[in-house]
Each structure stands twice: as structure tokens, then as C-alpha cells.
Design goal:
Strand order of the largest sheet of chain A: 5-6-7-3-8-9
CATH class of the largest domain in chain A: Alpha Beta
CATH superfamily of the largest domain in chain A: P-loop containing nucleotide triphosphate hydrolases
Distance between the termini of chain A: 44 Å
Strand content of chain A: 15-25%
Number of helices of chain A: 10
Radius of gyration of chain B: 18 Å
Order of helices and strands of chain B: HHHHHHHHHH
Number of strands of chain A: 9
Shape of chain A: globular
Low-confidence stretches of chain A: none
Radius of gyration of chain A: 18 Å
Largest sheet of chain B: none
Oligomer: heterodimer
Strand content of chain B: under 5%
Largest sheet of chain A: 6 strands, mixed
Number of domains of chain B: 1
Helix content of chain A: 25-40%
CATH topology of the largest domain in chain A: Rossmann fold
Structural class of chain A: alpha/beta
Largest interface: A-B, 27 and 24 residues
CATH architecture of the largest domain in chain A: 3-Layer(aba) Sandwich
Number of domains of chain A: 2
Chain lengths: 242, 247
């Protein structure tokens, strides 16, 4: 059973091919990592799957639904954290949570989530006054408010310190055991290794690897996953010379 | 419905925290009312008129908050929400992003109504104001002017390329209308030539309707203004629905 199915997805921006004939599946109750350098097409892929950008060809289904045609039903069950956190200038943490919860039929209690992510003392703080790490945690909280079956996390732990990253990993692992399917992008290979059941490495919109972290290491003949990742993305030479 | 209520409540909270609308849509009309009340007192609107200058100005004062919310508030908030991709965030939720816009519009309606009530109370209690026309008809006029002016703001916010351009257009609409449409500076004290020029401003026509209904003058006097307001609402409404940019 797959939570997300992507078939032959292609997206062009004018002459530039942003996503080139991409296909993959995210099985239920697993974590799927979409990797690649900045500009490799990760965010575009996520937006095409969600339907906020229109793919030029190919299709994507989430929970066996068409994200554009069945969006009202689908997005009751899907959480999204976009790469750039967007919020109103004058909004406080609690207000943003309340406004997010209000659009779902059966939202989770956001006070509990804030507690779990260690920012419950910031309820009355303006979102713009939070530190980068606190804000990042808040946006993960927002994506979990719908009590989703599938969650999209674009740049999961950017801006978090080591402790907070571990905490986030633990929470996500626990949610995964409870049945949550996760599609994430990340630039931290230790995180990918710790969390992802399967990965896909993108290079200029093309798939250069798909499989498990172990397979990536075997195929590239590298012991370290970060080396394997760099080998696939052809940044290896620069890396070796440093 | 619950989503709408929560959105509106929090939008209002944020707006009050920002203060701008409270100042421009609620406090400023009262200040202008007090100034006009002190300067012109209970003087008749013109020699032989059976209503006072202030009775005549009431309709104009009610339009200040409509103008502030419609051509300043709406374009700025819509373009801001688009550039911050807040509208996009709602695209991946079960509600339509248009519900957020509706909450914004509702918020400015609240401001306009609050301003109307406070103006009515202050004018009645302190400056002997009396609504001479039919109150229902006045409210109908108020609604028409609101729909018309808000549709201008919707159009500007909906199609302006970015927040900066929306801000420039909003200022270019707001300040001339605030000063020259008769909302603050009374139309009646303007020289004839100036009156002819400012007649092109949409709000000038709106104010004619509000004054007419507040004073209970024959409604036929403002048929042209009503047609103009309806036309603006239809055209700008159509353009904003048709060409609205969500991203």
C-alpha cells in the first residue's frame, strides 16, 4: 500500500527542465527522503505532488486521491511544511496554531504538540520574534496539527541545534510507528541515515539514485553515506580535494 | 463557518495590534467630526437650509473608514499575503484560500460599521446630529458604497505585481480620495471648478449618495452616482475575480 505515488512527473520552467520524468512511491508508515543540491528540483517536485504547481506531464496521487480534484477531502489527512516559513507580520504562535487548527474537522490539540516540541512557553510570542530553531519547530507542529496520515516536510531541521534535531527525529520516528508516512527533504545526511527507509537523489531534476541508504553506500562503494551522496551528485571530486 | 470565525477573530486581533486601521478607520473620522463640529457648529448647511452643516457632513465622514479599509487596507493585506505565500499555504488545506480573503473583507466591514456607529453616537450626543432620511435607505447606500470601494481595493490587491506596486497604487487612490472627495474637506466649501474636477473620484459619487440618503433628499438627485457606483462594483469585481493572482 502506497501513501504517495508519483509517475513520470515532468516540470519545465521555460527552457529549463526542473523535474525530469520522475517516478517513485512512498509506502505507508515509512519515511522517504528526497535529496539533492539546492536547485535540484526537490521543492518543485513536492509542489507538483501537492498540486500547488502544475506538472507539465505525469501524475501524482496521495492516499489514492488526485491532489487537485479531491483537495478538500485529501488535505484533511495531509500535513505540509513548506521550505520557506510564511506567516503574518503581527501573528503570535498561539494564533497561528489556532488559525491552522480551525480549517480541519478533527485537528490534534496544538497545545500538546507545542509541549512535545518544547515551545509551549512561546504561545504568546510573536512568530517573527522566535529564534530560527523555534520557528522551524513551530512549522513542524503546524504540519502535524491536521493529525495527518501523510506529511510533507521540506528542509526538515534546517536551523535546529543538535539537541533539537534529535528530539524532532524521535518524535517523527514515533509518529511513523503509529502509521504516519513522511516525505522529507534534508541537507543533513546523518538525519537521512537515521530517519529514511528509502531515498531518492535528484540531480538537475533527474533521478541519479533510488533505494535504501545501505544500497547507496554499496553502489557507490563508500563506507560513509555522505560520501556516497556526494559521489552520486558528482560533487565528490571537489570534496576529495578539500 | 468555524474556520471563518476563527480567521476573522485572529485577523482582527492582528490588525488591532498593528494599530493602523484603528487610527485611520475609527479614530480619524471622529477627529474630523469634532473639528467640523467645532468649526461649523450648528450652522445651517447654507442660507435657508433646514439642516445643519454637520447633518450634511455626516454621510461624508462615514466614508472615511470605507476608504481606509477598501483602498488602503485591502490592497496591502492581499498583496502581502500573496507575497508571503500565506494564500498558497491555504491551498494545501481543506479550505479554499478565498475564505481568507473573505475574512479580510469582513474585517474591513467590521471597521466601517464600528466607525459608522461611533460617528453616529458622537454626532448625535455632542453635535445635535439628526438622521433626516430613512435609516434603512441610508444603510443601503452605505452598503453600495462599501461594495464599490472594496471592489476597487480587491482589484488593486488582486492584480498588482507585488506589495510595493500595490502600496503605490493604494496611496495614489487613498490620499486624493481622502482629501478631495469630500470625505474630510467638505465638498461644499470647494470652489465650483474644483468640485467639477473631484467629481471624477469614485468616492465623491459615493459620498453624494450617503449625504442624500442621510438628509432624506429625493433619491432621484443621485441616480447618476448610484449608476456609477454599481458600474465600478461590477467592473472591478469582474476584473478581480477574473484576473486574481494567487501567487
Amino acid at each position: 500500500m502506497s501513501a504517495i505515488i508519483v509517475k513520470n512527473l515532468t516540470k519545465n520552467y521555460g527552457e529549463k527542465v526542473a523535474v525530469d520524468n520522475l517516478s517513485f512511491e512512498v509506502k505507508k508508515s515509512t519515511v522517504f527522503g528526497l535529496l539533492g543540491a539546492n536547485g535540484a528540483g526537490k521543492s518543485t517536485t513536492i509542489e507538483c505532488i501537492l498540486g500547488t504547481k502544475k506538472a507539465d506531464s505525469g501524475e501524482a496521487r496521495i492516499l489514492e486521491m488526485n491532489p487537485t480534484k479531491e483537495r478538500t477531502r485529501l488535505f484533511e489527512r495531509v500535513g505540509v511544511q513548506f521550505q520557506e516559513a510564511n506567516y503574518q507580520e503581527q501573528i503570535k504562535v498561539e494564533e497561528l496554531c489556532e488559525m491552522t487548527a480551525a480549517v480541519y474537522k478533527k485537528p490534534r490539540n496544538y497545545a500538546e504538540l507545542l509541549e512535545e516540541f518544547g515551545i509551549s512557553d512561546k504561545k504568546k510570542t510573536l512568530v517573527k520574534s522566535l529564534s530560527g530553531g523555534e520557528r522551524q519547530r513551530l512549522f513542524i507542529v503546524l504540519s502535524l496539527i491536521p493529525n495527518p496520515e501523510v506529511v510533507f516536510l521540506d528542509e526538515l531541521t534546517t536551523g535546529l541545534d543538535a539537541r533539537a534535531r534529535r528530539d524532532v527525529w524521535n518524535i517523527l520516528s514515533k509518529l511513523k510507528k503509529q502509521g504516519l508516512s513522511i516525505l522529507l527533504t534534508s541537507h543533513f545526511m546523518d538525519e537521512v541515515e537515521a530517519l529514511c527507509d528509502e531515498i531518492l537523489i535528484l540531480k538537475k531534476g533527474k533521478t541519479v539514485f533510488r533505494g535504501t541508504v545501505e544500497q547507496a553506500k554499496n553502489e557507490s562503494k563508500k563506507e560513509n553515506f555522505e560520501d556516497a551522496y556526494l559521489w552520486f551528485t558528482d560533487e565528490e571530486e571537489n570534496y576529495e580535494s578539500i | 463557518m468555524r474556520a471563518f470565525r476563527v480567521l476573522l477573530k485572529n485577523e482582527l486581533k492582528m490588525s488591532l495590534r498593528g494599530m493602523d486601521m484603528l487610527i485611520f478607520a475609527v479614530i480619524m473620522p471622529i477627529v474630523v467630526l469634532i473639528i467640523l463640529g467645532i468649526v461649523f457648529g450648528q450652522k445651517p448647511a447654507f442660507e435657508g437650509a433646514d439642516y445643519s452643516f454637520l447633518d450634511q457632513s455626516f454621510g461624508a465622514l462615514c466614508s472615511i473608514s470605507i476608504c481606509a479599509g477598501g483602498v488602503m487596507g485591502l490592497p496591502l493585506v492581499i498583496s502581502d499575503y500573496r507575497s508571503k505565500q500565506i494564500l498558497k499555504r491555504y491551498k494545501v488545506t481543506p479550505i479554499k484560500p478565498s475564505l481568507v480573503l473573505l475574512a479580510e473583507v469582513a474585517m474591513y466591514v467590521v471597521y466601517a460599521v464600528v466607525s459608522l456607529i461611533t460617528l453616529f453616537l458622537v454626532a448625535t450626543c455632542f453635535f445635535g446630529f439628526r438622521m433626516r432620511g430613512n435609516f434603512g435607505l441610508f444603510l443601503l447606500g452605505f452598503l453600495l458604497v462599501m461594495v464599490s470601494i472594496f471592489s476597487i481595493g480587491m482589484m488593486v490587491g488582486g492584480i498588482a505585481k507585488n506589495s510595493k506596486i500595490a502600496g503605490i497604487i493604494a496611496s495614489a487612490l487613498y490620499f486624493p480620495m481622502l482629501v478631495f472627495s469630500g470625505a474630510t474637506l467638505p465638498y461644499e466649501v470647494m470652489p465650483d471648478v474644483m468640485q467639477k474636477v473631484v467629481d471624477v473620484l469614485p468616492l465623491t459619487q459615493g459620498i453624494k449618495i450617503l449625504k442624500n440618503t442621510a438628509l432624506g433628499l429625493p433619491i432621484g438627485d443621485v441616480t447618476v452616482s448610484v449608476i456609477i457606483m454599481l458600474a465600478i462594483a461590477a467592473i472591478c469585481g469582474f476584473i478581480s475575480v477574473k484576473f486574481f493572482k494567487w501567487e
